[in-house]
TrEMBL record:
Belongs to the COG7 family. Residues 29-56 form a coiled coil. InterPro entries: COG7. It comes from Carpinus fangiana. It is found in: Golgi apparatus membrane. GO terms for cellular component: Golgi membrane; Golgi transport complex. It comes from the Eukaryota. This is Conserved oligomeric Golgi complex subunit 7. One of its GO terms (biological process) is retrograde vesicle-mediated transport, Golgi to endoplasmic reticulum. Its main location: Golgi. Keywords: Coiled coil, Golgi apparatus, Membrane, Protein transport, Transport. It is a peripheral membrane protein.
């Protein structure tokens, strides 16, 4: 059995566990006593070996201690001697430092003098060389060796920079400029031939000559000049086709006139829309070929040469491009096509009266812009290796023909929307004969309700056009245009609403409760009375139904405008994200350059993929960009109103609709209650008879029963409107609340009118008090049937009128204002001639 001593050195050694483990590892045939005895003997042997080893090692350690002590003393002595030696060296260095500083200063002065002498020597040599070069340069030019001439001129330039502004060499400086121009002129024909015939080696040599004399700009200009001619031929191909097509048309027309048989022209018409994509394709192919060739011929310059060629091309055809776009937009509308005019002509006012910008004009412009956008993306892919600034300048040149149109975008949209909304049928209501007022009202309300989704669709299409055409860079102008057009539309609705008031017969009627104050009541009451006689009950209810339908117009306008404004805010938020406003806007606020050498714009615009039309425009107009970014940042706030003025006008229109509907619903009540305060029954007295007559109950009069029947019938009139609103179960509760709210509003108005008439009674007899009490009780029962509480004022009228005259004073003293309305009770006492003193 082997004995493992490892567990004994552990800090967590447990003797019992170790013995149990050793016992369990014994052989199955070996007894425990034998196993433990053997284990004990082995432990004793090991312990004796350990003790012997410790004793031996301890004796050896005691022998080594004196030797170690002697070594420590010797090391200490060596350290002391080393310290003294280092101190002596430091003292010597300090002494040497003082003397060497003076020596170094003297050497620096000597070196400065030496450098000046060398510079003067080199200057003298350059001056001598310049004189020699100036004398021999004509011979070099005469030899026709252009590289050698370039080298000579470069040396002359170097020598002139070395000698500085010396009067003696002023003529040489002028001579050098003339010679450089001369050499440039000598290079140009050869460079033209090399570029035209694709001579790579010759082009490279000539480039080296121009670079040597600092004329790289000349290389750019000449490269563009050589290729611009070919590209302009592509552009002028459209005019050639137009002329050929015109000649063919004239020839065919002449043949048709001279021939007895009818003749159909087979010459196809040429449109700018069909021609522009092919021009872009040919131009892109030309640029691709130039890019590939320049990568070989000018490996250091192709990233700027080819983009510069495209920039120069767009500058050369820019005015013609704008003119063709303008005419192409006019071709889509017969009126402007006949006049050979386009959008810019309409905007300038140089058009006959009645011709306005139409949606087709702008859609045609957007279609052309989309074609250019495809070409711009291809160019961005082709020039992806170019510097970011170069790429941006190139794309701006590609989009430049549309800039004048984009600057007038807000004006265009205003004109288009105004024209489209003017085409929506919003005729006001006209007064018809008896029996036709309800029909006129219903038709007008239908036109109003149908116009709302039409206008919202027009506004939504405007937002889509703005994003498609300007990329959102004209979002601020879009908001202003939409707000103005919404104001124009709502103003038209309000004018139509005024005409509805005339048709409904409430243009001059008001009650002071939720409407205008009433004036000239005698005359108007007479008009109302005559109206009651003329208009049938059926037509009255048709007018009520038509007026209630106006509420759906207000509800539709409110909901649709709210949804449109929320959609508009979401669009502005997307624009904010796409343009990376948070980074780009901060650079604008700090008045920093938008493009830096290390590609700042690339990070601020979210990388090269974001070089779209909006970003390119905003770089050059920081003030406009700042305003746009402020608008887009504000749109992230839920409280932000994209159309602030329109939102206020929508609310005002809804209030006007509610006022009209209330006036219509309350008009019949007003008619029946108009003369209540002047009824003769209030001052009537009982007739005395010699015979005893039976006492009969007092019945409510016709005026109050008519009002009550109208109020009780009103829920049935509101039910169709509630069903129209409750088109699903989710809105059922809302519709019921809506109908109940209007029923309560009309009932409260009727009660207020009734109380106002009661306050106008100057005197009431006992018999009149009984009659009025019966009338009030009937009205109170109607309110109870409508689940409304009886107002305290009306209850006070009833209590004071039903109380005998001689007990009225005691009633007021006993109540003391607990249940009665004291001002009303005092008024009734005054009516009944009861003194409270």
């Amino acid at each position: 059995m082997m004995l493992d001593l490892g567990p004994f050195s552990s800090d967590n050694f447990d003797p019992k566990k170790w013995i149990n483990a050793a016992t369990q590892s014994r052989h199955s045939q070996e007894s425990v006593d034998e196993h433990l005895a053997e284990l004990e003997s082995k432990l004793q042997m090991v312990s004796e070996e350990i003790a012997a080893s410790l004793e031996e090692q301890g004796a050896a350690a005691l022998l080594r201690v004196p030797r170690a002590t002697r070594d420590v003393l010797r090391l200490r002595e060596d350290a002391v001697s080393l310290r003294s030696g280092v101190s002596a060296i430091l003292q010597k260095l300090k002494k040497a430092e003082g003397s060497s500083a003076e020596s170094i200063a003297a050497l620096a002065k000597v070196d400065t003098v030496k450098q000046r002498m060398e510079a003067a020597y080199e200057t003298l040599q350059d001056a001598a060389g310049l004189t020699q070069l100036s004398a021999t340069v004509e011979d070099v030019f005469a030899s026709g060796d252009l590289p050698r001439a370039a080298e000579t001129l470069a040396n002359m330039r170097h020598c002139l920079s070395a000698v500085g502004e010396v009067a003696e060499f002023a003529n040489v400086r002028k001579q050098l400029e003339v010679l450089e121009d001369r050499l440039d002129a000598m290079v140009q024909p050869r460079l033209t031939d090399a570029l035209s015939n694709r001579k790579v080696d010759v082009a490279q040599d000539l480039r080296g000559i121009l670079i040597r004399i600092g004329r790289f700009k000349s290389l750019e200009l000449h490269y563009s000049k050589v290729h611009l001619k070919s590209i302009k031929q592509l552009w002028e191909d459209f005019d050639s086709k137009l002329r050929a097509n015109k000649l063919a048309t004239e020839r065919n027309e002449a043949e048709r006139l001279s021939s007895s048989n009818e003749f159909q022209s087979n010459s196809p018409s040429i449109s700018f829309y069909s021609w522009l994509p092919s021009f872009y394709d040919e131009l892109l192919l030309y640029l691709e070929q130039e890019w590939k060739w320049c990568t070989v011929a000018f490996p250091d310059d192709y990233k700027s040469l080819v983009p510069k060629l495209l920039i120069e091309t767009m500058a050369a055809v820019g005015s013609s491009f704008v003119s063709r776009i303008n005419l192409a937009t006019g071709d889509v509308v017969p009126e402007t096509k006949a006049l050979t005019k386009g959008i810019l002509d309409i905007l300038s006012g140089d058009m006959p009266k009645g011709i306005k910008i139409q949606t087709k004009h702008l859609e045609a412009l957007i279609e052309l812009h989309n074609m250019t956008g495809i070409f711009a993306r291809n160019i961005q892919h082709l020039f992806s290796e170019s510097d970011l600034r170069v790429l941006m300048d190139t794309l701006k040149a590609v989009y430049f023909p549309y800039e004048s149109f984009k600057k007038s975008y807000g004006q265009m949209e205003r004109a288009i929307l105004s024209s489209e909304i003017a085409g929506v049928d919003l005729r006001g209501a006209v007064t018809r004969g008896v029996g036709a007022q309800g029909i006129e009202l219903s038709e007008t309300v239908r036109r109003m309700e149908e116009s709302i989704p039409q206008v919202i669709v027009l506004l939504e299409a405007t937002v889509e056009r703005c994003v498609s055409f300007t990329g959102g860079s004209e979002a601020d102008e879009l908001i202003l245009a939409l707000d103005d057009i919404m104001l124009q539309y709502i103003s038209t609705l309000q004018e139509t609403l005024k005409s509805l008031r005339v048709v409904c017969g409430v243009d001059h009627v008001a009650d002071g409760v939720g409407s205008k104050k009433e004036t000239g009541s005698d005359k108007k009451d007479g008009q109302s009375a005559r109206k009651v006689d003329v208009i049938s009950n059926e037509e009255e209810w048709s007018i009520v139904q038509g007026a209630l339908q106006i509420l759906t117009v207000a509800d539709c306008l409110t909901s649709r405008s709210s949804v449109f404004e929320a959609t508009l805010r979401a669009t502005l938020a997307r624009l904010s994200t796409s343009l990376s406003i948070s980074v780009f806007g901060s650079s604008l606020d700090q008045n920093q350059s938008h493009v830096s050498d290390d590609g700042t714009l690339e990070s601020s615009l979210g990388g090269r993929a974001a070089l779209d039309v909006a970003a390119l425009r905003l770089v050059d107009v920081p003030e406009k960009a700042r305003k746009l970014f402020n608008l887009l940042n504000q749109s992230k706030d839920p409280r932000f109103h994209a159309l602030p003025l329109a939102s206020q006008r929508v609310a005002a229109f809804a209030d006007a609709v509610n006022e009209l509907v209330y006036d219509v619903l309350i008009s019949k009540v007003r008619q029946h209650l108009s003369d209540v305060s002047r009824l003769p029954v209030w001052s009537s007295v009982e007739e005395h008879s010699a015979f005893p007559l039976p006492t009969f109950s007092v019945y409510p009069q016709s005026y109050v029963t008519s009002v009550g029947e109208y109020l009780l019938t009103l829920p049935q009139q509101l039910e169709p409107l509630a069903e129209g609103i409750s088109n699903n179960d989710a809105n059922n509760d809302e519709a019921q609340f809506f109908a109940t709210e209007w029923m309560f509003k009309v009932a409260e108005g009727a009660t207020a009118l009734y109380i106002e008439q009661l306050r106008g009674i100057h005197y009431i007899s006992d018999r009149g008090a009984q009659q009025l009490s019966a009338d009030i009780q009937y009205h109170s029962n109607v309110l109870s049937a409508l689940s409304m509480e009886n107002p305290p004022v009306l209850a006070t009228f009833d209590t004071c009128l039903s109380t005998p005259r001689d007990q009225l004073k005691d009633l007021l003293k006993l109540d003391s204002g607990n249940q009665l309305d004291l001002p009303t009770a005092s008024l009734v006492c005054k009516m009944r001639r009861v003194s409270l003193d």
